[in-house]
Amino acid sequence: xxxxxxxxxxxxxxxxxxxxxxxxxxxxxxxxxxxxxxxxxxxxxxxxxxxxxxxxxxxxxxxxxxxxxxxxxxxxxxxxxxxxxxxxxxxxxxxxxxxxxxxxxxxxxxxxxxxxxx
Length: 118
Description:
Layout: H1 3-18, E1 21-24, E2 35-43, E3 51-61, H2 67-80, E4 83-84, E5 89-99, E6 107-117
Parallel strand pairs: 1-2
Antiparallel strand pairs: 2-3, 3-6, 4-5, 5-6
Helix pairs in contact: 1-2
């Protein structure tokens, strides 16, 4: 699957599941919080016919309260972990963590998924 198509697919899934503002790769300087930011990294394996990528999603809030991003990350996990769709995309949660931020009012959660396509 082309990266552009996969990004559009994941953007729509994140928007529907999280109810947050969604950005690809980097939030703008005037970002709306809470938000989630997602990015892909390719995994090159010449012995495998699958298109494998790492999907990293970071959830950010600037209110000092993590309830909104906890709810959003749980909703995305329910929508995306063990995900399978008709366009032959599969996703599995690989890692999830709270990320400390030096800014006192910023709360962050990060998730990493293995995404496979055919």
